[in-house]
Write a structure and sequence with these properties.
This protein has 796 residues and is an alpha/beta fold. Helices cover 41% and strands 13% of the residues.
Length: 796
């Protein structure tokens, strides 16, 4: 079974460390560099190829295709079409040397593997014959030339052969296991004692050649991740009609991969090829990206490898032509292709992060689960994704918010015994959820300790009475977020509704009164054959696996709304901070009204509005919003009040009187129904009738000054409204329609005292992705809220 992530999933030891310095990285500059790099490569294409001579065109042409496709160029683009026809006409031995055949194979696998299946198989046969089998230091490696009987190898050609065979496996072309075993032994044997790899193997009996450098060490790490993942055993297997879970994973080479990572950390650089100077810099960066992605880590030691590497590439590119100039043997086409591959593949959206917790490896009982469910999402959503491991003890909230889903799994309790550590974990996770995060947790069938610990953890995270784990009903949108599940395979899921959606989903131990324990979701993901290579699986077992994958996909679709951000975009949103005046004097500040109908449903809405106002208008704003009680004395200190909720509520006569007095004496209230909640809508209109019996809420006309530039806002004629719908395939989708903004208000003496939106604004201000939330888009909600705020300011 092919499972390269099995080895990488356990390489987590201290991978999450706060970097010593933070690299500034602007998403617009990254996108512009990619776009200009694409145009440069396209401008250099001639008759379907890149290069002057036939024997020099195979590799650069394949590499350019890989770069263009990875950057989002459509597969039916005329440039790609001409290039692929050129590669088909020069396949196999005609392609020339190993590098060219390897890159050509990867291009065939990426663009149209069904059409080019015969070419892929032909090249795999070449690699099988080219692999050195003599009993010497070169055994298991590959040479430059596509001929059998070679008696020498180098690690660079061997790396490219491994990458080509790996891509062939991913599209269903099986590679004999003896090829993988010989390759695994080759990479083990060629590693230096200090953890690095060099260019050539040491004589038989030695250990590496002692001259390690960055590009070859990256090649060694990635090749060992692939080969050890294939030749090792995962944490579950299929035995006839049974699925055996929580088995001891066998990956004896893990420590060697970690030794390579340690060497990279000690010699880390993005401005040169470590221990090799400026030679082959872009080749090294291309390999560095692969290490970070395949080992599922954001940091190498203290280095955020993608942000540092991308910043270096932005500094060194030729802004006039859009290309990257060659270093050593790399010509401009090759250098530009390598640079684009780093920028595009390294910034892939992170779908989920698997949480390392506790003192044992129990958190990783199924080391391939996250990798396989991510691959399944990739296939279904047709988008390149990645996932990461995260050490929760070392992580900060800023680290956590880089991922849309945190995934806890195991048998042991995730709640530390130490009270200080437990309190720290509770604060981190609550902070993560308040910033829009999502937690998925699952107990293994025998995980009584996990079940007890996670339930206790949620109680500490949510001491408020409104938030507790409840069974998700059949009407919950999570069950149809992506695809329906056969009724017999439905399993209980519990959740906590926090913020604008169900933000915590928990899969408790799954047992059957007659059959006993059922395989956990993580176990089903572990044994899943995403690329359809396994044969002779019983239909009953396959149906279980399919149901497990579909359940996981539904949860992830619900959690992310299939709206995933690239790494550089998330970094920008986390790091942008509003300039804090430190005081209310001379600054804009907002009070958020307390009530019993879910006043905390969108805790970041008001602060996000203030932050946006500061960043885009330079307006001094308060450091934080304040919760305001209608029973307290601080009500009148807040001229601008916001209010949102999703449940029904009531106010006493005294509370209604206090708010009315405040509004009639210059105060202003902006309210909205979270996710267009009918319960809140009914309650809000009821208290308004109580407060203003002779002044009912009325529709604010579209030509009102509130929708104009009169007070400093923008002209608003229509706004996009998000509307959840069920597709013919029963999938929950969200459509957008341009509509006139629907606002209601109460006015006195020509001034609106109350402005109310029955459609969601607050969750959109949080940029929350929810398949169940009807309301304005984040951009539209911000535009509307800014106009409302400026209107209120204009009448003080």
């Amino acid at each position: 079974m092919f499972r390269f992530a099995a080895a990488s999933a356990v390489l987590i030891c201290f991978v999450l460390v706060k970097p010593a310095t933070t690299q500034e990285l602007e998403p617009d500059k990254v996108r512009r560099a990619i776009e200009q790099g694409i145009q440069y490569l396209k401008s250099r294409e001639k008759n379907g190829s890149w290069g002057a001579y036939l024997e020099e065109r195979m590799g650069p042409t394949s590499l350019a295709v890989l770069a263009l496709i990875s950057c989002g160029v459509p597969k039916d683009d005329p440039v790609i079409d001409r290039a692929m026809n050129f590669l088909r006409q020069n396949s196999g031995n005609k392609a020339g040397k190993n590098y060219s055949i390897s890159l050509q194979t990867m291009a065939f696998c990426l663009v149209d593997p069904e059409r080019d299946l015969a070419f892929i198989r032909e090249n795999v046969e070449l690699f099988k014959g080219m692999q050195i089998r003599e009993n010497n230091e070169h055994s298991g490696g590959w040479d430059y030339l596509p001929v059998s009987g070679s008696n020498r190898s180098d690690l660079s050609n061997s790396q490219f052969s491994i990458l080509a065979l790996y891509e062939a496996e991913r599209v269903g072309v099986s590679v004999p296991r003896d090829v993988w075993h010989r390759a695994a032994a080759y990479w083990t044997r060629t590693q230096n004692k200090n953890g690095s790899w060099g260019y050539t193997p040491a004589p038989r009996g030695g250990s590496g050649n002692g001259n390690g450098h960055g590009s070859m060490t990256c090649a060694g790490i990635a090749s060992m991740v692939i080969t050890s993942g294939i030749t090792g055993a995962g944490g579950a297997k299929i035995n006839g009609n049974k699925i055996l879970c929580s088995l001891p994973a066998q990956h004896s080479e893990t420590y060697r991969i970690e030794a390579g990572i340690d060497w990279l950390d000690k010699h880390f650089s993005v401005s040169q090829n470590p221990q090799f100077g400026g030679s082959h810099l872009y080749y090294y960066l291309y390999a560095l990206e692969r290490v970070g992605r395949m080992t599922n880590r954001r940091f190498i030691g203290q280095h955020d490898w993608y942000r540092e590497g991308a910043a270096q590439l932005l500094r060194t590119r030729d802004e006039f032509t859009g290309c990257w100039r060659s270093h050593g043997a790399e010509n401009d086409i090759v250098a530009t292709s390598f640079a684009l591959l780093f920028l595009s593949k390294g910034r892939r959206p992170v779908l989920m992060s698997k949480v390392q917790f506790g003192k044992t490896n129990d958190w990783n009982v199924h080391p391939n689960d996250a990798n396989n469910i991510t691959n399944y999402a990739e296939k279904n959503w047709k988008i390149d994704l990645t996932w990461q491991n995260i050490e929760i003890k070392r992580a900060t909230v800023d680290h956590l918010i880089q991922t849309p889903v945190l995934y806890f799994c195991g048998n042991n309790s995730p709640l530390p015994d130490n009270k200080n550590e437990a309190d720290e974990l509770v604060q981190k996770l609550r902070g993560y959820l308040e910033l829009g995060g999502f937690i998925l947790a699952e107990s293994q069938p025998d995980g009584a300790a996990f079940d007890k610990g996670f339930r206790e953890l949620t109680k500490l995270m949510f001491p408020e009475p409104d938030y507790e784990l409840r069974l998700l009903e059949s009407s919950h949108p999570i069950w149809a977020a992506e695809t329906p599940i056969e009724p017999e395979f439905l399993r209980p899921l519990e959740g906590i509704s926090f913020g604008c959606r169900t933000s915590v989903v928990y899969a408790p131990p799954f047992k059957d009164n007659f059959a006993g324990n059922k395989p956990s979701l993580s176990c089903l993901w572990e044994v899943a054959d995403i690329f359809n290579r396994r044969e002779n699986i019983s239909p009953a077992v396959q149906r279980q696996i399919d149901a497990g994958l579909k359940t996981g996909l539904n949860i992830l679709a619900y959690a992310t709304n299939r709206e995933l951000k690239y790494k550089d975009e998330i970094a920008e949103s986390v790091e942008k901070k509003a300039a804090d005046s430190g005081t209310h004097r001379g600054s804009v500040f907002i009070g958020v009204l307390e009530h019993s109908g879910g006043a905390g449903s969108a805790p970041r809405a008001a602060s996000n509005l203030l932050r946006w106002l500061n960043l885009n208008y330079g307006t001094p704003v308060a450091s934080k919003t304040e919760s305001v009680s209608l029973n307290g004395d601080n009500l009148f200190a807040y001229p601008f009040l916001m209010m949102h909720g999703r449940n029904s509520f009531e106010w006493t006569e005294a509370q209604c009187g206090a708010l009315k007095k405040h509004l009639e004496n210059g105060g202003f209230l902006f309210a909205d129904a979270v996710c267009s909640s009918k319960e809140f809508d009914v309650s809000f209109k009821a208290v308004m009738r109580t407060m203003f019996p002779n002044q009912p809420l009325e529709r604010i006309p579209s030509d009102d000054a509130l929708f104009s530039e009169q007070h400093g806002g923008t002209v608003i004629r229509t706004l996009p409204l998000r509307i959840p719908e069920r597709s013919p395939e029963r999938k929950t989708m969200v459509s957008e329609r341009e509509v006139e903004p629907e606002l209601y208000g109460i006015q006195k003496d020509g001034r609106w005292l109350v402005v109310y939106s029955p459609n969601d604004v607050s969750c959109a201000l949080e940029s929350a992705s929810s398949l169940e939330c009807r309301g304005y888009t984040p951009k539209g909600a911000m535009q509307l809220a800014v106009n409302v705020l400026f209107y209120a300011l204009g009448h003080w």
